[in-house]
Design goal:
It contains four helices and no strands. By secondary structure, the chain is mostly helical. Helix 1 runs antiparallel to helix 2 and helix 2 packs antiparallel against helix 3. It is elongated and about 150 Å long.
Length: about 240
């Protein structure tokens, strides 16, 4: 029984592959039509290469689409048994029909080239009419892309000029700040020199005061010691 979850549903997995391949086949088909409209003969190497690439893509796409169709046929009789709703089955049927129709249209264009000899006259409607329109659309698209690219480049250059201007202004601001800081450092150095000189003078005066106090204290100590010695001698004589 097929699980209803997206991770385990084979249809959804193959569906993603089909849509991816279809997205890749469409540019190949447009390129093939453009080359076909410009080619002078059906045996043009560029046309043959584009045709081969498109046929390879359609072949792989057709195989995966057949798997999708078989999956739909397997569940459409009893969707509930596979955990699917009737609306989901209808969506899958419509997807298979739409992709199949688009693949068939591409294959018909390939058959037209074989039948008419690459744009020559024949019983079928002239396929080059569509190719010419495709070429016009392609040229217009290329022109729009070039205009858009030039516009984007102009915006990019404007952004670069704006960024360079900002960097230049920032550099000027940094230069002014560095100059101001240099001047402040000069002032600080001058003040530091003055303070250092004042401190040195103060230390010299302090050392002079300390030496004078040391001499005074030494004389006092000697006098006290002499008095103590005399007192001890008197005490010895008395005793």
């Amino acid at each position: 029984m097929m699980s209803s979850t997206n991770e385990e549903d084979p249809f959804l997995q193959v569906q993603q592959d089909v849509l991816t391949q279809l997205s890749s086949a469409r540019p190949l088909f447009a390129s093939y039509l453009r080359i076909r409209s410009l080619a002078s003969a059906a045996t043009s190497p560029e046309l043959s290469s584009a045709r081969a690439d498109l046929e390879t893509a359609l072949s792989a796409l057709g195989e995966d689409l057949a798997d999708l169709a078989a999956s739909v046929q397997a569940v459409e009789s009893d969707p509930a048994a596979y955990g699917l709703s009737g609306g989901e089955v209808t969506r899958r049927q419509r997807l298979v029909q739409q992709v199949g129709g688009e693949i068939e249209d591409m294959r018909e264009e390939l058959q037209k080239t074989q039948s008419t000899g690459g744009g020559g006259e024949g019983g079928l409607p002239d396929p080059s009419a569509f190719a010419i329109g495709e070429e016009d659309n392609y040229a217009e698209f290329e022109q729009q892309q070039q205009v858009q690219m030039m516009h984007d480049q102009d915006q990019h250059l404007d952004g670069v000029f704006h960024t360079v201007g900002n960097l230049r202004r920032q550099a000027d601001d940094m230069g002014r700040e560095l100059e101001e800081q240099r001047e402040m450092l000069d002032v600080v150095d001058t003040v530091a020199d003055r303070v250092g000189g004042s401190l040195q003078n103060g230390m010299s005066k302090l050392q002079t005061v300390i030496r004078r106090n040391e001499d005074r204290y030494s004389g006092c100590c000697i006098g006290v010691l002499i008095f103590v010695l005399i007192l001890l001698l008197v005490l010895l004589l008395v005793l």
